Amino acid sequence: MNGVGDPTAVAVQVDGVGRVFGTGPAAVVALEGIELAVHAGEFVSLIGPSGCGKSTLLRLIADLDRPTTGRISVFGRGAEQARLAHDYGIAFQQAGLLPWRTVRANVELPLALHGTDKRACRDRAEELLALVGLSDFAEHFPDQLSGGMQQRVAIGRALAERPSLLLMDEPFGALDEMTRERLQTELVRICVETGAAVVFVTHSIPEAVYLSDRVVVMSPRPGRIREVVDVALDRRGGAEQLREEDAYFDAVRRVRAVLHAGSPAPVRGVETR
Ligand SMILES: Nc1ncnc2c1ncn2[C@@H]1O[C@H](COP(=O)(O)OP(=O)(O)OP(=O)(O)O)[C@@H](O)[C@H]1O
């Protein structure tokens, strides 16, 4: 019993994790003393200044890198076991689609690689393309799609094996604001439908607040968790309405205050942006 599918389970447990790159005087302490638990079905964003270790933490959870100290588990398994058991799906800033495969074949890829038979691959691809709104583009190739559509394919692919956890590193970072908002709304809907927990790296405070149950604010050198902000917006009124609500603006202000609490004060007489 590893807790996948159990809503009371802990999806990701990070205990005392540190990551140092290099040795001696040139060593970079990318992360130090990170403690974090992400629960099943919970949406948690990581936000903080450039270089504070957000991507490093995500890569450690995904077992794309190993911590120098501490331990990470995913649904009770070690990060490596979780990777081998396909407990999570990954989507990064670059959609990373294979240009010579159709949209359908890209979405089917993880299933085909892991031995799912053709019929089941096709059925699952149909479901996923409907979920991300791309049923009419199944036979297109990636270079025939917009950036936002390519990201939707990547999200569909990440969901192919019904992971209980999605790891996303600025998946909407390269998109225009309107497309980005649309995909945020879709992502919230998809998460509700699939019940997946998400760890989401972003530079955008409104994006973090809109998507998340909790926002983890990090500080750099060494990368640490400064504070975890509870957002807990009432999402029953519909996704779009949320962006107009006082509770949303209040959460944006709270995250901004924590984020800027450690920034150097502006020098008098010097314009800052
Ligand atoms: N493979 C590596 N080798 C050496 N240093 C690294 C490596 N990966 C990351 N670092 C360093 O670790 C620190 C954290 O990097 P990381 O990419 O995790 O930050 P980030 O918060 O995701 O930044 P950004 O918001 O700019 O993407 C940085 O100082 C970076 O230079």
Structure summary:
One of its GO terms (molecular function) is ATP hydrolysis activity. With 273 residues, this protein is an alpha/beta fold.
Word description of this protein:
With 273 residues, the chain is α/β, with parallel strands linked by helices. It has 2 domains: 10-87 and 163-261, 3-Layer(aba) Sandwich (Rossmann fold), CATH 3.40.50; 96-162, no CATH class. 35% of the residues lie in helices and 24% in strands. It has helices at residues 54-61, 79-84, 103-113, 118-131, 147-158, 177-194, 205-211, 239-242, 246-261; strands at residues 10-21, 28-39, 43-47, 69-74, 77-78, 88-92, 165-169, 197-201, 214-219, 224-230. The chain has a 6-stranded mixed beta sheet with strand order 6-7-8-3-9-10, with helices on both faces. The protein has a 4-stranded antiparallel beta sheet with strand order 2-1-4-5. A hairpin with a 2-residue loop joins β4 and β5 (77-78). The radius of gyration is 19 Å and the shape is globular. The N and C termini lie far apart (51 Å). The mean pLDDT is 88. Residues 21, 28, 30, 48, 50-56, 223 line the site of adenosine-5'-triphosphate. Pfam families: ABC_tran (PF00005). Keywords: ATP-binding, Nucleotide-binding, Transport. Residues 12-245 form the ABC transporter domain. It comes from Georgenia ruanii.
